[in-house]
């Protein structure tokens, strides 16, 4: 092979390599374009959902935006983590659009007559003897009660006012407290002569740091479920063995006024 032939062969190979390289880059560009299009759609979707989502949705949006802006995956991950932290702190210290209101709905079936279950519930001052977090309950009057309960390693006090009470049917109350308050309704439903369903609906408005931290992790719902189980255990092991000793309040309250005392 002479010089000219070798040069031509080498040039042809170089041109082929360049062409192959360009084709590869075009293919890579198409892959990147498709990825960027999917990413852009994801960002738009996340943006539409972010207003209704929680900290993780907003954090995912921040991470996706970081990727779409050309940041490395590592930096995008940092954006995700930092936004999650900020949104979590905002929930704890800044409250939410709904004013920090937490709705809790729980029910439990108790193997006892409805009247006995209702009467035991109205003995509020007995609560500390079987509920783990209730320290004390003092009944100032038929419709007003002063509560003290544990919250983490601290304690909270509040006053509740019964605004509606009908024997064997339901009790509705409102509360006042410096740090968080709980309004609610408890109703009693006779499923059979010896089986009663207790339905508890609470509206919890956390006030202090501990309450808001618990609110974030929905600790109140777990606590309510546990306390209802303690109530059932007490009725099944104590009240049923001596039903004559359970003397409940059979009065009636409407619009915060006692209309019947027994």
Would you report the number of β strands? 9
Task: Output the radius of gyration.
Answer: 32 Å
Domain count, please report it.
Answer: 2
- Secondary structure tally, helices: 6
CATH topology of the largest domain: Alpha-D-Glucose-1,6-Bisphosphate, Chain A, domain 4
CATH class of the largest domain: Alpha Beta
The fourth-level CATH homologous superfamily of the largest domain is START domain
Main beta-sheet annotation: 9 strands, antiparallel
What ranges have pLDDT less than 50 throughout 5 or more consecutive residues? 49-53, 88-97
Encode the helix/strand succession as letters. HHHEHEEEEEEHHEE
Overall geometry comes to: elongated
The helix content is 40-55%
Pfam family, one: Polyketide_cyc
Domain Coenzyme Q-binding protein COQ10 START: 110-230
Protein name: SRPBCC family protein
InterPro entries: COQ10_START, ORF3, START-like_dom_sf
Topology readout:
Elements: H1 3-50, H2 55-68, H3 73-94, E1 102-110, H4 114-121, E2 134-139, E3 144-151, E4 154-166, E5 170-176, E6 181-192, E7 195-205, H5 209-216, H6 219-239, E8 252-254, E9 257-260
Antiparallel strand pairs: 1-7, 2-3, 3-4, 4-5, 4-8, 5-6, 6-7, 8-9
Helix pairs in contact: 1-2, 2-3, 3-5
Explain what the structure shows.
The chain is elongated, with a radius of gyration of 32 Å. Helix 1 packs antiparallel against helix 2 (55-68). The chain has 6 helices and 9 strands, in the order αααβαββββββααββ. A hairpin with a 2-residue loop joins strand 3 and strand 4 (154-166). Strands 1, 2, 3, 4, 5, 6, 7, 8 and 9 form a 9-stranded antiparallel β-sheet that branches. The chain has helices at 3-50, 55-68, 73-94, 114-121, 209-216, 219-239; strands spanning 102-110, 134-139, 144-151, 154-166, 170-176, 181-192, 195-205, 252-254, 257-260.
């Amino acid at each position: 092979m002479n010089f000219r032939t070798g040069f031509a062969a080498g040039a042809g190979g170089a041109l082929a390599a360049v062409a192959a390289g360009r084709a590869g880059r075009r293919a890579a560009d198409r892959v990147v374009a498709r990825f960027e299009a999917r990413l852009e759609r994801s960002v738009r979707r996340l943006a539409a959902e972010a207003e209704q989502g929680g900290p993780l949705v907003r954090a995912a949006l921040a991470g996706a935006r970081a990727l779409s802006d050309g940041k490395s995956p590592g930096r995008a991950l940092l954006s995700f983590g930092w936004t999650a932290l900020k949104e979590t702190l905002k929930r704890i210290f800044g409250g939410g659009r709904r004013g920090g209101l937490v709705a809790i709905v729980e029910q439990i079936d108790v193997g006892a007559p409805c009247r006995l279950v209702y009467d035991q519930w109205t003995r509020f001052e007995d609560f500390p003897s079987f509920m783990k977090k209730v320290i004390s309950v003092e009944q100032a009057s038929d419709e007003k009660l002063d509560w003290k309960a544990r919250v983490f390693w601290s304690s909270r006090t509040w006053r509740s006012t019964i605004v509606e009470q009908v024997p064997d049917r339901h009790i509705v109350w409102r509360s006042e407290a410096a740090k968080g308050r709980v309004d609610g309704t408890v109703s009693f439903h006779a499923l059979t002569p010896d089986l009663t369903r207790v339905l508890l609906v609470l509206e919890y408005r956390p006030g202090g740091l501990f309450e808001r931290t618990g609110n974030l992790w929905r600790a109140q719902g777990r606590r309510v479920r546990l306390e209802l189980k303690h109530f059932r255990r007490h009725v099944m092991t104590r009240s049923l063995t001596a039903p004559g000793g359970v003397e409940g309040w059979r009065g009636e309250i409407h619009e915060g006024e006692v209309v019947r005392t027994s």
